[in-house]
Protein: Sugar porter family MFS transporter
Amino acid sequence: MNTSALTIVIALVAATGGLLFGYDTGIISAALMQLMENFHLSTFNAEIVTSAIIVGALVGAISAGPISDAIGRRPSVLIAAVLFIIGTAAIIFANSMTSLVICRLILGLAIGAATQIVPIYIAEIAPPERRGSLVVAFQLAVGVGQLGSFILGFMIRNHSWRLMFGIGLVPALVLFIGMLCLPNSPRWMALKGRVMEARQVLVRLRSTKKEAEGELKEILAYGQGHEVDGKKGYAELFSRWVRPALIVGVGVALFCQITGINAVIYYAPTIFADVGFSQSSALLSVIPVGIAMVASIAFGGWAVDAWGRRKTMLYLLPGAIIGLLITGTMFHLGLANHGMGAWVTVFSVMAYTFFNVGSLSVGIWLIGAEVFPLSCRSQGMSLVSATHWSIDLLVSLTTLSMVKLLGAGGVFWLFAAMNFLAFCFVFYFVPETRGVSLEEIERRLRTGTFLSFKK
Structure:
């Protein structure tokens, strides 16, 4: 079965939320050195400004679940788009550390909501055999946004940081205008009793009317007695039969962050500058990291449907471990900014980025969007997103301090150990969901066979 062009367009427009996520989190790496100088920020204050967006994302992720259940996935994405526009417009005029923090909190609310809603929205409109690549389009947009922020940050490094942040208005407007033209999730509509509307959307999304009718029948069969409801959803989320999905979703989210990827994105220029790189060289050094990130997400988007979610993570994580061990060694020996050592360091960071992002960062939003039953999917995804942002907050608040305490080499070695633990977690706890309908995944949970599928 071929995925309709409309389904692809819907996924790409919705994934613009990921572009904003990537740009707004990535641009701080270029702007931070200017902000520290202009606002006379201490190391701790720099960590506060950087982390404000993550605090907002944590609140946005938790709040988005009940909202998307109540009013639908599409209207919730529209709310996130409005928050992106407000936060970006306001930060252009920030004139103090306090106003910077408030604006980044607003942007964080939008990012947290987007990470909770957009993957679910795409997963609920996508056919099973293309669900992996279409949901990963969200993560690919994140990578493109971050790479774009690195390139633009370097190109306009001699201009105001206000311009760096202001460019984010463009994709925010694209997301808002695009979502005005898209349908709501057919699964959400069906479970709200709006069966005729759900049927109309599925007929537009699927290749044949027969296929659409069969999918609607399956949705309704699993929806009997399980209407989407916030209060019931949280009770069901922590029930015994959903627990395997909870462990998988939250576990992948946790390891996605404690393995260090956002620490590299946020602070790589600062870390490189501290060991002797010039400001221009430090900013330039993260562009190859961004290229590796986008390449790895594109590869992962293919691999999750070709190899499977589980195999992709197991195949790639060892490469991330090796890349971090080499990077840590180069910093520890003081070779990171000298001749060939600088090249080895940059390439090893690129290797780490490729293998880590292509595995855990590709898997987090996809797995979170598909393993939970519909009755508590929003709540489960809220918890996945909240875990991601909570650990991200911890990492962002402590990375520079850890570098001062352990040295850059020690921090990279610590992240290598976390990647090894992530490999062990995937091996023992993550089943394969490639090509399986969302309703079949729910059936496996109900029958206790969820973890038996590890092919």
Summary: The domain at 5-452 is CATH 1.20.1250.20 (Growth Hormone; Chain: A;). The two ends are 24 Å apart (CA to CA). The mean pLDDT is 85. The longest helix spans residues 377-429.
